[in-house]
Amino acid sequence: MSGNTFGKIFCFTGFGESHGDFIGGVIDGCPSGIELDFNAIQFELNRRKPGQSEITTQRKEPDEVKFISGIFESKTTGMPLAFLIANADARSKDYSHIKDMFRPSHADFTWHQKFGHRDYRGGGRSSARETATRVVAGAIAKQVLQKVNISFVSFTNSIGNITAKNIPVNPDLDQVESNLVRCPDKESAKAMEELVKKVKKEGDTVGGVVECRINNVPAGLGAPVFDKLEADLAKAMLSINASKGFEIGSGFKGTEMKGSEHNDSWQNADGKFSTKTNFSGGIQGGVSNGMPIVFKVAFKPVATIIKDQDSIDSDGNKVIIKGKGRHDPCVVPRAVPIVEAMAAMVILDHIMLNNTVIFDAL
Amino acid sequence: MSGNTFGKIFCFTGFGESHGDFIGGVIDGCPSGIELDFNAIQFELNRRKPGQSEITTQRKEPDEVKFISGIFESKTTGMPLAFLIANADARSKDYSHIKDMFRPSHADFTWHQKFGHRDYRGGGRSSARETATRVVAGAIAKQVLQKVNISFVSFTNSIGNITAKNIPVNPDLDQVESNLVRCPDKESAKAMEELVKKVKKEGDTVGGVVECRINNVPAGLGAPVFDKLEADLAKAMLSINASKGFEIGSGFKGTEMKGSEHNDSWQNADGKFSTKTNFSGGIQGGVSNGMPIVFKVAFKPVATIIKDQDSIDSDGNKVIIKGKGRHDPCVVPRAVPIVEAMAAMVILDHIMLNNTVIFDAL
Amino acid sequence: MSGNTFGKIFCFTGFGESHGDFIGGVIDGCPSGIELDFNAIQFELNRRKPGQSEITTQRKEPDEVKFISGIFESKTTGMPLAFLIANADARSKDYSHIKDMFRPSHADFTWHQKFGHRDYRGGGRSSARETATRVVAGAIAKQVLQKVNISFVSFTNSIGNITAKNIPVNPDLDQVESNLVRCPDKESAKAMEELVKKVKKEGDTVGGVVECRINNVPAGLGAPVFDKLEADLAKAMLSINASKGFEIGSGFKGTEMKGSEHNDSWQNADGKFSTKTNFSGGIQGGVSNGMPIVFKVAFKPVATIIKDQDSIDSDGNKVIIKGKGRHDPCVVPRAVPIVEAMAAMVILDHIMLNNTVIFDAL
Amino acid sequence: MSGNTFGKIFCFTGFGESHGDFIGGVIDGCPSGIELDFNAIQFELNRRKPGQSEITTQRKEPDEVKFISGIFESKTTGMPLAFLIANADARSKDYSHIKDMFRPSHADFTWHQKFGHRDYRGGGRSSARETATRVVAGAIAKQVLQKVNISFVSFTNSIGNITAKNIPVNPDLDQVESNLVRCPDKESAKAMEELVKKVKKEGDTVGGVVECRINNVPAGLGAPVFDKLEADLAKAMLSINASKGFEIGSGFKGTEMKGSEHNDSWQNADGKFSTKTNFSGGIQGGVSNGMPIVFKVAFKPVATIIKDQDSIDSDGNKVIIKGKGRHDPCVVPRAVPIVEAMAAMVILDHIMLNNTVIFDAL
């Protein structure tokens, strides 16, 4: 229990370092009898993988997943699904020059304090490389959820100070994938791309916000007190590298509203109950209300930059960190499928938990 | 496991409804040999309790806590600390008129969907009344943490569109408690109080933001992947009733910064390592770095208002909800000690977990 | 997490000391909508309670349970069921004379080593008094299980060297309750009663074996690897005070058999599959097979005796422990309902977990 | 959460089927900074592996373990240790003839009921092949425990009706490994070997009992109520394939004793406290008392036999199961290292948990 496991029923454990031979994971608790679509899993991995475009890190990883257990006659067996992804392009020497230095806003110092040592090869397991395994687990969760028609769409809402203005109410995947930054507002996307390229040229990085929308979530998922559905989503999102904030529905802006404006009134359209507005973001009292679940996640600018930076080494001596290596000028486009993957794991877990609430045993 | 338990090692389970005889809780995993200061626990309860001022709900609850186990010769025994708080002023009849109605942005509909029934007496366990028990557990966690010098200060950062402008770097409790809204910026506090009173007069409610600062957290708490310290804080905060967002350090604003601005450079002052800035909010790579932990929590306007509202009943018929009962025009001042309590539970849990990382067994 | 919680989905947390005002518990995860039969709960408590006959301890406890949450309009709400049982007849002074002594085969020394202190008033929470709360939780689990026709019967199989010889294949409750030792073989029961009375007269104690049979368990409960159904039953049984062993089906005797004798062959009677023998005890490969689940639990002689005993005090000085206080000459008759209660919690938990195996979501 | 994870802090998750390419596992929560002895791990695997002697199954598996994460510069990093063991000699065709049949006392029927399908290739994950991964995890736990001088010795106590009579008080590994059946009583070992060979010739199998002794366990491990140390050991042992019983200290025999005989009196030898007898088996009130922990595990005769057996297929038709394939005439000699591995995981987990009881934070 060092925090490498996520979920209570659909339970994912990740392993592997950025510069080892493999990263991988084990899913225990995937329902049995699910026929997996491996192309769909690879599609999600491709959306996350490095080197996918001129605005991502140039590290080249095929990121092909190999399953080694839990599948028989092409269906899940109910036993652990274990999988591996090879690290093809790990260049350990890239990192040797910073072996004893504490890079600003990296995990170098904290890891050293916690574990009494430090894996300086690309940050070991503090590297975002491990998120590839989350995408695999999330892709499987999404396939299970498709059986009850639940779908996900995540996209870039802002990069730096450019916020998308014309996002469709319910964007589709094609719109998201139509540009390098994964923003379904084409015009804003263009400006975002230019910003990222400019920042990259400066050897700098920039942050942004990912929005996620989950459709067709049935009412009744979640729990009223500590395991509120939004609480589990918040944990999932803040567990993603570089994330600094989470908000659901009206979020921080909603704090400026009055109750009479913010309250979502119920209406009945031919027996289908819905709310006129959705400031709640699809969750009330910790439990889904049948409306789309809508939330945002803030990502800081990537800490690895090419510009020189002041810092200290482990003896406390002043050093200058000289940027080398490959890095992302903006993590947001690659974070989109990770947000979706984590959201899928949360929703599936709560659906499986929900089966236990009313006694309908066997 | 219906989500009424929080924490892994310092493990709190709450129980009780808003309109039953008691609410209460059980803490399993509190270290043994801790001498408890019951006045300090009561002090925190008083900061949360209803009826404490003219800008809170007028429900009158003494909120006195009675411990029934886990203490012997005035010290914790290491066995469960169970406690009860009587519900003195529960008026069930206040709620009977909305028995079959779905109040906007309440848990009425979702609870009904999840459990197949609904406790209409003040929302049962979806009422924020249960947070009193969190305050007890948090007050105990804070007392344990005092032994290693860790301290907490939470305060109101904004109410509605009024954001405090002159908050001291490290406010003290007296400054926080010097006014009804718990904002350590006196001038802003005055404006906030006026806003809350105005809103109250309108029969409406307003939201706001609570900020929390944790001092003297040692480096090394947290975990690199799913159980990042900020992830557990985010879950804790989003589990509080009416919260809609969480951000750590630079948060959503930080997404507009560049990496070269946002990175927190390390410096060495006579052997004490610190960062020049604290955009990270005290956590890097999921693990505390020894700087103050700083985060914010967004609270929506309370859903219970006096103004008439449109909605439907459980048969789908249109109804008008007429506001009655006692409610808070703004939950933020009472949320301050709840935020602190939840933060204390997270930090203590991670300290106790951290004992297991390096093997120093017996 | 100091080990006072049992179960994953139907999750019971106990609290309270032998000599405090109350013992009690919280069940989180009980399905909603269950109408509880409080007389049935009290009936089970009466079967466990002290002072029930001349062969049990003479401590007098009415053991009446009071529920304080989780019930609305007489049905479970799905939220925590908290309950209290008052300690009416706790005589702390009975124990003061052994305050610093380590009683043989008690938890005095180990508790002192673990927690750095010791609750000498009747052992605090190491006293079997806490098992009353298990009986309440188990009685509720049994009521839920009745809805799917699962039933339990436990009884005394042996006391000292007297083993029952004519136990009916499937004894009923009346047979079990027809005598003080709870053995459905009347003749053996008589001999057992005499043995217990004789041992009591000597100021001594004696052990015995409880057998439990669970009828109508559907095939498919359990899990193939670590959470085998028999593994969870074993843990449940060894968690009961004074238990020293567990065996399922053929148990230790079965180790002397050959595979060709021990294997349970399948047969088909008009579409109902069963095994000709049941040496497996109703579980194969960790998963129930639809046959009755049958297991035994060994209970040592109670450690509290009236005879003088040599020991040491906490300074290592030799002392003589003089027996005083009230105690049971044989714990077995009162252990019968505890075994049943723990078994019921295990079975219900696995039924609720089982709902998650095949995806049939909403 | 389908039961493939064991342990709370030192947390092991296994995966892989008998007839896939690999079996493997992930340990999350191993302390950082431990230098692993890979030869010692392989030594334990060799003790468990098939084909090790003429009295085990002739399936040939090198059972070499490959670590793929969690180790840097030859020490554990505190992050997950993932490992793989290749399945070299899986012959799926051996099993095709029983594809639709329910073998007596196998998991065929129960698996089919639980998961809606069945992996007929050697039982998939219900095969004891998965226990190889437990041995790896246990070997690592043992290495960590060596640092505090805790050691384990397990051995065969009986096979069939032959019980060892002259077992040394504290046998050493050489004595255990001096014969094929792993019984440190040479004479009994010879008789046991002959019995196994005879049974093998008959195409039959036989059961037996493994005893385990844990030396130098400090007082204070365990917990007073549900997570009693013996309860966690019982669960661990009953989770091993083919185990049918567990007893600690005096066990089932102890039920025939009187309290005055069974009680373990405390004595003081130059400041070292111990008990004169050890009927408690090293645990009192759920917590270790500093004496050796001693327990026994019953293993039934292996279900796979060569003799013809009656059974039915999944349509309920009568069939005759003809024994083929490779199997163990007696599982006990190979179970010895598995018992030890599981015990090591339990003890390490409780040591790490114990760090949290008294607050000595950082």
Explain how this protein is built.
4 copies of one chain form a homotetramer. The first copy, chain A, is α+β, with helices and mostly antiparallel strands and 362 residues long. Chain A has a single domain (5-361), classed as Chorismate synthase, AroC fold (4-Layer Sandwich), CATH 3.60.150.10. Helices cover 27% and strands 22% of the residues of chain A. Chain A is built from 9 helices and 18 strands. Chain A has helices at residues 38-48, 93-96, 108-115, 131-146, 173-177, 186-201, 229-238, 259-262, 332-354, and strands spanning 5-6, 11-16, 22-28, 65-67, 71-72, 75-76, 81-86, 151-159, 162-163, 208-215, 243-248, 266-269, 272-275, 283-284, 287-288, 293-299, 309-312, 318-321. In chain A, strand 5 (71-72) and strand 6 (75-76) form a beta hairpin. In chain A, helix 7 runs antiparallel to helix 9 (332-354). The first copy, chain A, starts with a strand and ends in an 8-residue tail after the last helix. In chain A, 67% of the residues are buried. The model of chain A has no long low-confidence stretch (mean pLDDT 93). Chains A and B meet through strand 1, helix 3, helix 7, strand 11 and helix 8 of A and strand 1, helix 2, helix 6, strand 12 and helix 7 of B. Strand 11 (243-248) of chain A pairs antiparallel with strand 12 (243-248) of chain B, so a sheet runs across the interface.
